[in-house]
Write a structure and sequence with these properties.
Length: 199
């Protein structure tokens, strides 16, 4: 059985929990208190961060790597595109999300007024740019739900928690977010602490 060491409020762990629930498979979640991490976490992951996936002798960390492994190991429903060109495009999007959006999560979590405002503005601007995509299509890659949607969903869920207010021009991305939040896999993946993030 796969075991996921997961932070109860960590957006990257949330991504992995969504993938596991979308696959409908048996797995174990070990909740990690991010302020009092277990000693064995640093042994499994040299960066001492979550998420960490353990399956027999295999130990993986970094959400994108974990999620792609789960998707290949349990291919139904498929979350990464089957076509190599589209899959390459999806990986490029994931790379851009990490460099342009998720790089700011740490500052948002710290809530340092000096750096958090800049981080909020950067995330708001990127999401506003992305919103035009949803004028024409249901999900990031078209009509089908994919790993890109899994990746964005936890951030969109946390907008009010991070005190990010999107402009009216971003209405399509907010409608897209509601579609993601209505999926059973997303609902099942929420921890009690995450449910309390939405006002």
């Amino acid at each position: 059985m796969m075991t996921l060491y997961s932070g109860t409020t960590d957006p990257f762990s949330h991504q992995c929990r969504i993938v596991l629930h979308e696959k409908g498979m048996d797995f174990q979640i070990i909740d990690v208190d991010l302020d009092h991490k277990p000693e064995d976490l640093a042994v499994m992951n040299p960066y001492n961060t979550v998420p960490v996936l353990v399956e027999r002798d295999l130990i993986l960390h970094e959400a994108n790597i974990i999620n792609e492994y789960i998707d290949e190991r349990f291919p139904h429903p498929q979350l990464m595109p089957a076509d190599p060109a589209t899959r390459g495009r999806a990986r490029l999007f994931l790379h851009r999300f990490n460099r342009e959006i998720f790089v700011h999560v740490e500052e948002l979590e710290k809530k340092n007024p000096k750096t958090a405002d800049k981080a909020r503005a950067a995330v708001r601007d990127r999401l506003t740019e992305i919103s035009v995509v949803f004028n024409k299509q249901k999900h990031m890659l078209g009509e089908d739900y994919s790993m890109l949607d899994v990746t964005l969903a936890p951030l969109l869920w946390r907008l009010s928690h991070y005190e990010i207010e999107l402009p009216k021009a971003s209405a399509p991305v907010l409608k897209y977010a509601e579609r993601l939040f209505s999926r059973q896999g997303f609902i099942d993946a929420l921890t009690p602490a995450e449910r309390g993030m939405r006002r």
